[in-house]
């Protein structure tokens, strides 16, 4: 039992050496995301997540809300309100399944496609330019590291 406690204390002390740097890096990413979200809001009043939802629907053709939840990492409750707002703006449509009336399909509308065609990218232009300038191996490594960091955060909703 004492070996387990010692091991845990050692692991925690090694984490403390990284904690401040990790927190600062996560905070910088959060701030950059907030600044870009404000830019997106000035364009057509879309949030980054609304833009992502429209992009996913555009690429997939049609999805159920539960499938969409998994693809955009949102809870059903959060996504439901977002879908209502996008539907009110005429950017997506809901359609009952012909075979199973309980199932509802989500489609991007023509207005949603037109908005996507003119919408700014999900990532800030400065980041996109710097990222594009990295060697391919570094782009893959950075993407993998960020995806892994997101996994370590667990479910936040």
UniProtKB/TrEMBL annotation:
Pfam family, one: MarR
InterPro entries per UniProt: HTH_MarR-typ, MarR/SlyA-like, Tscrpt_reg_MarR-type_CS, WH-like_DNA-bd_sf, WH_DNA-bd_sf
Start and end residues of each HTH marR-type domain: 19-151
GO biological process annotation, one example: response to stress
Keyword DNA-binding tagged: yes
Keywords: DNA-binding, Transcription, Transcription regulation
PANTHER family (UniProt xref): MARR FAMILY REGULATORY PROTEIN (PTHR33164:SF89), TRANSCRIPTIONAL REGULATOR, MARR FAMILY (PTHR33164)
Name this protein carries in UniProt: DNA-binding transcriptional regulator, MarR family
Gene source species: Pseudomonas indica
């Amino acid at each position: 039992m004492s070996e387990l406690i010692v091991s845990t204390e050692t692991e925690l002390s090694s984490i403390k050496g990284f904690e401040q740097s990790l927190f600062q890096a996560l905070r910088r990413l959060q701030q950059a995301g907030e600044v870009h979200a404000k830019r997106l809001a000035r364009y057509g009043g879309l949030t980054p997540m609304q833009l992502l939802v429209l992009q996913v629907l555009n690429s997939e053709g049609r999805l159920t809300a539960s499938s969409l939840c998994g693809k955009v990492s949102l809870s059903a409750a959060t996504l439901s309100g977002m879908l209502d707002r996008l539907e009110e703006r005429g950017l997506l449509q809901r359609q009952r399944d012909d075979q199973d009336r309980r199932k509802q399909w989500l489609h991007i509308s023509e207005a949603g496609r037109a908005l996507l065609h003119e919408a700014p990218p999900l990532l800030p232009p400065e980041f996109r330019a710097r990222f594009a300038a990295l060697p391919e191996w570094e782009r893959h490594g950075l993407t993998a590291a960020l995806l892994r960091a997101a996994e370590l955060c667990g479910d936040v909703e």
